[in-house]
Write a structure and sequence with these properties.
Elements lengths: L2 H7 L1 E4 L3 H12 L4 E4 L11 E2 L7 E2 L5 E2 L5 H7 L4 E3 L6 E5 L2 E4 L11 H14 L7 H11 L6 H14 L9 H6 L9 E4 L4 H7 L5 E3 L4 E7 L2 E6 L2 E5 L1 E4 L3 H6 L3 E3 L4 H9 L1 E2 L2 E8 L10 E5 L2 E5 L11 E7 L1 H9 L1 H16 L7 E8 L11 E2 L7 H5 L7 E3 L12 H21 L6
Parallel strand pairs: 1-2, 1-14, 2-10, 7-18, 11-15, 14-23
Antiparallel strand pairs: 3-4, 5-9, 6-9, 7-8, 11-12, 12-13, 16-22, 17-20, 17-21, 18-19, 19-20
Helix pairs in contact: 2-14, 4-5, 11-12
The structure holds flavin-adenine dinucleotide.
Keywords: Auxin biosynthesis
Family: Belongs to the tryptophan 2-monooxygenase family.
Enzyme class: oxidoreductase
C-alpha cells in the first residue's frame, strides 16, 4: 500500500475498551491501517482487574462472562485464557431484616424467583400493549394482576436486583426499552476469567497496532471527506472513525464534534441514561461469613457482596461490594471513608456482627464519577425504546458509533461491547468495498 492509499484507508478508533479494541482488531485483520486514541494510560476502559490486592485477580469493573454462548468465549479460546464457572451463583443469599435468606427459599419468594418476576412484569406489560411506563409501575400492576401478596421485603430486593442488573432504580427504568434488551438466549451461567478480565482486552492489542495511550480526544472534525481528531496537542487524519466513547462521555460534551452531531443522533444520546455503580474491594482481618455463603445481596445499600477468591480455592478474607443506582450516587457524595463505613455497616447488619473494626485495606472505584466513563452501564428510561439502534447508525459514512450503549440486545456487557466493535468495523469495511478498495 503506498502512502496515499494508506491515508485514504486509515481508520481512527476512539477509545481502547472492549468495543474499540475489537473494532481495531477486525479492521487490521482485513489489512486496514488503524490508529487507536485512548485517554487513559491503560487499555480496557470499564474492564479493570487489580492484580495487587490478592494472590488472585480482583475485578473492579466488569466481573463475569454472562452466559456460555456469548462472543467473549471466542477470544478466551483464541488467547488460551483460563475461565471457570463462578461458584457463588449457586450459593446466593439475600440479606433481609438481619438474617440471610437463601435465594433457593421458594416459600419466601415469588414463584420462579425475584428476577423472573421482574422479567414477567415487563413482558406482560408489553404484551398487553399498555403505554410505556416505569418498571416500578409495571411490577405493581403485575403483582395486583396475579393477586400476589408481595411483601415489602420483595420490593426491597427487586430494587437491589435492578440496581445490580441495570445500575438504575425501578422508578428510572422504562418498560419498553428494557424489554427490547431482555434477551435470554446467551445462557444463564456466570463465568470468571481466571487470568483476570483485563487479559481479554489486553490480548486484543496485536503487535504493530498504532495504539496511543494518554491521548484524550478533545475534538473530532468530520465531513464526508474524512475525519481529523485532536488529541494531546496532535492531529490525526483518517478516512473515518469508530467512536466508542461511553454514553456518559458523549452526554457530557467533553469531546466536541465539529460540525455538531445530527439532531436525531443527539436525541438518541440524550434519551438513554448512564447507570451508576460504586465498587469497593475490602480485605478484612479474618473470616466474616459462613462457608456456605457465596454472595450476599443487600437492600441497604442496594448492592451485592462477592468473595472473588472462592473460585480460586482461596480463603483470604477479600471481598468486593458493588452498589448500583441511586445508592451508588449517594455513596459517591459521601466521600470514600464514609462510603466504606456505610457499606460495612450494611454488611454488619446483614450478618448480625459488627465488622467496623475489621477492615484492613479498602479500594474504591466510583464509576459514576470517573471522567472517562461517567457511568457504569447504560439503561433505557421511559420513552427510549429504539434509541440504541439509532445510536448505532453510521453518520455520513465517516462516524461509526460502537460501545455497549449501541448494542441493541446486549447493552451493559462486555460481549455486547465486543459485538458492537465488530459491527462498526464491518460497516467500515463495507464502505471501503463499496468505494472500490480491495480488502485482505
Ligand atoms: C462496575 C461494573 C461492573 C460490570 N460488570 C459486568 C459484568 O460482570 N459482565 C459484563 O459483561 N459487563 C459488565 N460491565 C459492563 C462492561 O464493563 C461494559 O459494558 C464494557 O466494558 C464497555 O466497553 P466499551 O468499550 O463500550 O466502553 P469502555 O470500556 O468504557 O471503553 C471506552 C474507552 O474510551 C476511553 N475514553 C473516554 N473518553 C475518551 C476521550 N476523550 N478520548 C479517548 N478515549 C476516551 C475510555 O478511557 C475507555 O477506555 C460492568 C461495568 C461496570 C462499570
Amino acid at each position: 500500500m503506498d502512502e496515499d492509499d494508506e491515508a485514504e484507508r486509515r481508520v481512527l478508533v476512539i477509545g481502547a475498551g472492549a468495543a474499540g479494541l475489537a473494532a481495531a482488531r477486525r479492521l487490521r485483520e482485513h489489512g486496514i491501517p488503524v490508529t487507536v486514541l485512548e485517554a487513559r494510560d491503560r487499555v480496557g476502559g470499564r474492564i479493570l482487574t487489580a492484580y495487587d490486592l490478592a494472590p488472585f485477580p480482583v475485578e473492579l469493573g466488569a466481573e463475569f462472562i454472562h452466559g456460555d454462548r456469548v462472543i467473549t468465549w471466542e477470544l478466551v479460546r483464541r488467547f488460551g485464557l483460563r475461565v471457570f464457572e463462578d461458584p457463588s451463583q449457586y450459593r446466593r443469599f439475600f440479606a433481609l431484616d438481619s438474617r440471610l435468606l437463601s435465594a433457593n427459599a421458594p416459600e419466601e419468594l415469588p414463584a420462579g424467583g425475584l428476577w423472573a418476576a421482574l422479567v414477567a412484569a415487563e413482558e406482560e406489560w408489553v404484551a398487553a400493549r399498555r403505554p410505556d411506563t416505569t418498571l416500578a409501575e409495571a411490577l405493581r400492576w403485575w403483582v395486583e394482576r396475579h393477586g400476589l401478596a408481595a411483601d415489602e421485603r420483595w420490593w426491597r430486593l427487586w430494587q437491589t436486583l435492578a440496581a445490580i442488573g441495570w445500575s438504575a432504580d425501578l422508578e428510572e427504568l422504562g418498560v419498553y426499552g428494557t424489554d427490547e434488551e431482555t434477551y435470554e438466549g446467551d445462557g444463564e451461567r456466570n463465568f470468571r476469567v481466571a487470568d483476570g478480565y483485563s487479559r481479554v482486552v489486553e490480548r486484543l492489542v496485536d503487535q504493530g497496532l498504532d495504539l496511543r495511550l494518554g491521548h484524550p480526544v478533545e475534538r473530532i472534525h468530520w465531513s464526508k471527506w474524512g475525519v481529523v481528531a485532536v488529541a494531546a496537542g496532535e492531529t490525526f487524519e483518517a478516512a473515518c472513525a469508530v467512536v466508542t466513547l461511553p454514553l456518559g462521555v458523549l452526554q457530557a460534551g467533553t469531546v466536541e464534534f465539529d460540525p455538531p452531531l445530527p439532531a436525531s443522533l443527539r436525541q438518541a444520546i440524550d434519551g438513554l441514561r448512564p447507570g451508576r455503580a460504586f465498587r469497593v474491594a475490602l480485605r478484612f482481618r479474618g473470616e466474616i461469613w459462613p462457608e456456605e455463603v457465596g454472595c450476599i445481596f443487600t437492600a441497604e445499600p442496594r448492592g451485592v457482596w462477592e468473595r472473588p477468591g472462592l473460585g480460586y480455592g482461596s480463603r483470604l478474607p477479600l471481598f468486593t461490594v458493588l452498589v448500583g443506582g441511586g445508592d451508588a450516587e449517594r455513596l459517591s457524595s459521601l466521600g470514600a471513608d464514609r462510603a466504606i463505613r456505610e457499606v460495612v455497616a450494611g454488611l454488619s447488619a446483614a450478618l448480625g456482627r459488627d465488622l467496623s473494626g475489621e477492615v484492613v485495606e479498602a479500594r474504591v472505584i466510583d464509576w459514576t464519577h470517573d471522567p472517562l466513563a461517567r457511568g457504569a452501564y447504560s439503561f433505557t428510561p421511559v420513552g427510549s425504546a429504539g434509541l440504541r439502534a439509532r445510536l448505532s447508525e453510521p453518520v455520513c459514512d465517516v462516524l461509526f458509533f460502537a460501545g455497549e450503549a449501541t448494542s441493541t440486545i446486549r447493552p451493559g456487557t462486555v460481549h455486547g461491547a465486543l459485538e458492537s466493535g465488530y459491527r462498526a468495523a464491518d460497516a467500515v469495511l463495507q464502505r471501503f468495498v463499496a468505494a472500490g478498495s480491495s480488502l485482505t
